[in-house]
Request: fold
Amino acid sequence: MDAPVALWRKVLDRLDEAGVLQHLVLIGSWCIPCYGEYFAGVPYTTSIRTRDLDFLVPSPRHPMPRVNLPELLKDLGFVVDFRGEGYMKLDHPELIVEFLVPERGRGTDHPVSLPQLGVNAAALRFLDLLADRLIETKVAGHLIRLPHPAAFGLHKLLIAPRRIKDAKAIKDKEEAFRVLNALVAKGETGQIRQIFQGIPRGWQRRIEQVLISQKQSELLEALK
Amino acid sequence: MRVIRSVLKEELANSLRMRREYERALKQLPKGVLIRKQIRGHGYYYLLKRESGRVRFEYLGRRISLGMDHRYKEAKQLRAKYRKLLAQVKRQVSFLERALRGRSRRAVA
Reply:
């Protein structure tokens, strides 16, 4: 087992013991290897994984056990890093843990305080899409929540055009196609369509434009 | 290739930031280690520190508070951990800089 995975499991152990893991959703590139079990039996490979381990807090006001996460992870070697407007990240040479919440209303440039976890979180657009449809999978004896692969893929296509760095947009699209094509191979085109049809028309158009520009006709067909 | 290069660049920026964070965290830990000396059947606590390259024993008394004991024990463990992780981050920085430099040299050649 490589070092980031070993540390990732220790982080999951701590979060589960503290009773907060069930209130979090794992998002970002760490979802890709976790979908392996879901896609068992269909061609599916994992891609480049960065050190960023992102957790979505879908309902920041929802009651959950009180825990000081920086203290909880301190002896593993995590140090707190404050960036920009005061956003917190928990840094370790193997992993960078960050918390995110869905942005609602007008949005804000300031971090959202999560006093029950002892951290703050960045509020980002479109995260509701990930939080609305979840699946559960077992990792190292822990039940973790992930966005449904269809929601994950569509979200990546939605945010790709908003990326400032081209390479990030390419990576988003590559991850989206990987997951969505695996869903098509698994015969779950209906799931993609169902989630796609439940999102606002503007978002749908943006996703269609990406698929057209990337000549992904099979996926475009799956949305109809 | 562009994606890999961009990921490497981002990871380098992260590692450079982390290096600063670990250096800062090490500076913030209480300096020195607690030592209990046994002299003629009695225990005496000292704080062992290094100042300008010289080792100094600062006498603390026959008893110290539990809080102080805990603070210095934790600091000792964290110092060892942070130094190890700082060394790891420095190796990452060196590797990532080499990887990115190597790529641009080949591009020039």
